[in-house]
Amino acid sequence: xxxxxxxxxxxxxxxxxxxxxxxxxxxxxxxxxxxxxxxxxxxxxxxxxxxxxxxxxxxxxxxxxxxxxxxxxxxxxxxxxxxxxxxxxxxxxxxxxxxxxxxxxxxxxxxxxxxxxxxxxxxxxxxxxxxxxxxxxxxxxxxxxxxxxxxxxxxxxxxxxxxxxxxxxxxxxxxxxxxxxxxxxxxxxxxxxxxxxxxxxxxxxxxxxxxxxxxxxxxxxxxxxxxxxxxxxxxxx
Length: 237
Prior knowledge:
This protein is mostly beta strands. The chain has two helices and eleven strands. Helices cover about 10% and strands about 30% of the residues. Strands 2, 4, 5, 7, 8, 10 and 11 form a seven-stranded mixed β-sheet that branches. It has a four-stranded mixed β-sheet with strand order 1-3-6-9, with no helix packed on it.
């Protein structure tokens, strides 16, 4: 029986029926892009659920960020220690589409791929975290320590979307959230960053972002991001 179900899922995947692609384009701050290309022409891939809106604001919460050019790259130029806000609207969807389960709760991961850092910042990072700075950091340094609690997504749902968790009790309802992000204290660095919403069985508690989906941490429901979008950054010296 299990083999039959697996075979059906594989066949449907080949046919594109379990694709996470969406037909409509979300409203986004220029500079925000899909984490992965869509599987089908004319569609977009923002995760297993439907992204309606994703914007990044300065710390006043109302001024939308604009890209600037730094070292030949168009980036969001950030200032260490400053707070920025992500305002996101999405519609939780079943995955695989059409017959899968709705996500219940969700966690947040900000995954940073460091492509530039001074030798001094690299040394400081490695002394703190025990791994090299350059390359992919699955969880931003801002989501360690006091930031562990920030990984629970339901706490950031806005008043207009209150009582939306668990999400499987509210099918076909748009959810709005506002997430504050404090730039880690690693100046003179550059990243390609992904903002990710991860579907989970419960609210995120044990271990926060670093243990999300790992032994001892919060259990995830599927091995696919519910929402994922990318953007390039540079942290001023």
